Amino acid sequence: MTSRREFIYKGLLAAASISSAGFPGILHAQNKRPTVKVVGTHVTLQPHLKARAEKELGINLEFYPGGSAEVLLKATTDPTSFDLYEQWSNSVRPLWQADAIQPIETSRLKYWNEISPLAKTGKLTEKAKIGAGDSPNKILFIQPNGTLGPNPTDQITFMPYVHNVDSFGYNTQKIPAGIPYETESWGWLLDNKYQGRVALVNDPTIGLFDAALAIQAQGFMSFKDIGNLSRDELDQMFTILTDLKSQGQFRGVWSSVPHSIKLMATHQVDIQSMFSPAVASLNGMGVPCIYAAPKEGYRAWHGVMSLSSESRGESKDAAYEYMNWWLSGYAGAFIARQGYYISNPERSRQFMSQAEWDYWYLGKPASEMLQGTDGKNSIKAGEIRTGGSYHRRFENIAVWNTVIPNYEYSLRKWNEFVLAGV
Questions:
Q1: Angle formed by the axes of helices 231-246 and 207-217, nearest 10°
Q2: How many angstroms separate the CA atoms of 281 and 293, rounded?
Q3: What is the 8-class DSSP label of residue 365?
Q4: Using only C-alpha atoms, what is the Rg of the chain?
């Protein structure tokens, strides 16, 4: 009988073709400091944070960043390759089903009681829309029978930390600026005015929803439940996308934040699916990129820090220390400067200037020039963050990054779309 790990592997292999060269062999520490191996994306696996955490915790960190599909494939098929996995909430179901992660004990998380209601209930405020798909509370708690569900327990699949709402970015030198929540629309990605200047993120659990939101916004078709697409809906959707591709709508797809930055910085695209750090970097480079606030709502995600099923002993203890360090304040302030939020923001406030807090969290105009994580000026005085405050952004969620029940089928259709005409 096929094991769950083999079952997940077959599906993920279609999404990412990688070799072990992408993840260096384990380096043995030359001293007695415990080593924590972390796989994830470039978004959080940043050299500055690594150096700071190593110094403050007295541990060794080995970072192995890669594309979203790449690192998920690695983690699900080889849990010995990591102690901690940092990525998006849509990774959790495949990781859990593949026995790649172990329960995290909330009693060992120093700041568990400070974590906001977003991860625990799916809503940051009472009037917020939860959004379709897997809101984080649905996959956070491990139920007594071993399934995942919203009922609180003292064992969880991931430590909630970084999160944001995503949309698309566009270059205002080429596309006139729209009005947040009024005229900006996912449908712009499929507007033939931008034919040949559009890119999508090459991740079937993320790009899938960007495309679905765009298709629905353009009126090409509608979905019964955008967070749970049927096979018939997937067939119709990918017929539309493939036809558009054959007509030259898309410049291509990107698989990492640096790749997306390069596409727009070199003027290969004018509009594309984007992550917030890429927008911040482009602005720091002088490219006037706006991160849209679509009238249809955002695609939301919650960062997960999950513990490998193979992590043991000192490395496991050090992994808990590193998880706690992430919520101790500094890291949350650091990632705020690239447009991301942390699950216990008040603790990070002491590491931010008042101008930074007002801009990033409260949605107020920047009272002075603000720098990004790269030290470059990325926000001009007087600018207001697109989409407004933290609360307002999370009150407008259309769908969460989700591994849908028809995940394997969607993988096949996605890869057929990406490879069509190649």
A1: 80
A2: 19
A3: P
A4: 20
Placement of tokens 């992994």 in the chain: 319
Query: CA dihedral defined by 338, 381, 259, 397, rounded to 10 degrees?
Result: 60
Q: Is the pTM of this model over 0.90?
A: no
- Name every residue whose Cβ is closer than 8 Å to that of residue 277 and which is 6 or more positions away in sequence: 42, 43, 257, 338, 339, 340, 373
Dist. CA 408–CA 261, nearest whole Å: 29
What type of residue is 295? K
DSSP conformational letter for 11: H
CA distances from 333 to 46, 108, 161, 311 (A): 14, 23, 12, 28
What are the residues facing 141 on neighbouring strands? 149, 156
Asked whether the beta carbons of 401 and 206 are under 8 A apart, the reply is yes
Q: What angle do CA 188, 194, 195 make, to 5 degrees?
A: 120
- Phi/psi at 230 (nearest 5 deg)? -80, 170
Kindly compute the dihedral angle of the four CA atoms of residues 237, 242, 248, 252, in this order, to the nearest 10 degrees: 90
Convert the pLDDT of each residue in 366-385 to its tens digit. 999 999 888 888 889 999 99
